[in-house]
Write a structure and sequence with these properties.
The structure is a single chain. This protein is mostly helical and 236 residues long. It has eight helices and no strands. The longest helix has 47 residues.
Length: 236
Amino acid sequence: MRFLARFSAVVTDMDKRRRNARPSKYRPRTDAQKQRRQQLWDARAEARKRRQTADDEARWLARLAELETALRDHGHNGIHGRRHTRPLDSITDDAERFGVLKARVERLEALWSIDRRKRETRGKIIIGGALLAELIDATLTGDRTLLTTVLDILDRRVDLARDRLTVRDLLGDAPLPLRPGGEVAEDLSTALQTMANDTPDFDALVQEAMAEENDFRPSDIDGDYADLDPVWRREA
């Protein structure tokens, strides 16, 4: 069987050589044909590039219109509101028009990001002011339900003692401890000292880890390594 397999491989190789040696039935291309073929490839590549550029420009234009509309709805003028800005239609050079379009979109993206952050900050102030006004009205009427709910939220969400002190003063000396789990009557210095004492002793943790490493023996991994314990001790 092995001989037949080798013989078949040799015959197949000979057939391939014989076929490769036969003259081609196709006539070789002339230089003019090769040049025309290269020109065709170049034309197709240029057409693909133009289509890609047109698609990209259409996407940038759509994004520009979207940003201009969003900024205008929030009280800002679009990019064409500036007098020194040239209309894109007046730019005849494709590369220059695409570059200007991209730069304008990037600028409006930055303006939109800044405007969004400002609106978020304004929204937080509005919400906080409304809640604070509601708290004051409820406190004046003797209803402490909302105050208890807000204090519970603040006790879970606010960690810094100085922030808790600010909130407590703002709410008219509300019963908010200056640290989580602390007493309401605790002053700021005591709260800060207690919180500092509650911080883990990193030096002790390092020493404990080093002590555990010194107590480690190879036999702790596997009993077959027990003969390495004396050597391990000497190297340590």
